[in-house]
Amino acid sequence: MSDNTILELQNVSLAFGGLKAVSEIDFKMQKGEILSLIGPNGAGKTSTFNLITGVYKPTEGKILYKEKVLNKYKPHQITNLGIARTFQNIRLFKQLTVLENIILAMNHTRKINFFASLLPFGPGKKELEKVTEQAVKYLEYADLVEFKDIRAENLPYGKQRELEICRAIATGADLLLLDEPAAGLNPSETTQLMDIIKRIKTELKKSIFLIEHDMKLVMGISDRIVVLDYGEKIAEGTPEEIRNNPVVIKAYLGKGE
Ligand SMILES: Nc1ncnc2c1ncn2[C@@H]1O[C@H](COP(=O)(O)OP(=O)(O)O)[C@@H](O)[C@H]1O
Ligand SMILES: [Mg+2]
Questions:
Q1: Do the domain assignments include residue 87?
Q2: 145-184 per-position pLDDT tens digit
Q3: What is the full DSSP assignment across 101-135?
Q4: CB under 6 Å to ligand 1: residues?
């Protein structure tokens, strides 16, 4: 594994009964890059994220993160190693405020201090201020500060998607896996999302692995793209290379997308 590799899949497969959702996939992701995973519906994209995050175990092959083999790790252990994800269908603590959603995602010590500070005999106001201040910083990445005391369920849909991304950042993870973050967003929200993802890369130096159908977004922000079709990797390259790849064009046109 080269020094700059953060994530590597080596010959990874995942079978559900007779169906190979992911079939002998290989690729490497570099630290600090935006890598996109694209392909028609059912191509195996979400399954790939589920493999990386330990929801499913590979039926063959190896997954390496910072040179550690992840195959045997449980999802919470993988989170602790520094991989955070967002979901195709938004998952937030709907009844909690925007700020509370962020604080719950933040590192353990800070979180404990936060809840302790709510007790009359806890470490007190100062601790609370410190945690809140840090949480607000995370919210700034998505212009969410003004919404901080609103319950997550009352946020506009686009803001809920952004909150999910802020929450992933708040875990302190180095690698963010975003599963269709632009799904359901209108064009102006999508442009805003694009800016947020770019800032997370340039200012926070996170590595971002993105599943997305919006080609404008994918072509606009990806350093490299991996293309799946029927569980197999059919192409890998820069946006320019992928755009002009006849195999990729055929996979999409063949399915009317
Ligand atoms: N838990 C599961 N059990 C059985 N089949 C599954 C399961 N999860 C996904 N699949 C199948 O694996 C294939 C890939 O699915 P998925 O990774 O969700 O695709 P994508 O995210 O690219 O649309 C599909 O044929 C899907 O029906
Ligand atoms: Mg999916």
A1: no
A2: 999 999 999 999 999 999 999 999 999 999 999 999 999 9
A3: HHHHHS-HHHHHHHHHHTSTTSS-HHHHHHHHHHH
A4: 16, 19, 21, 39, 41-47
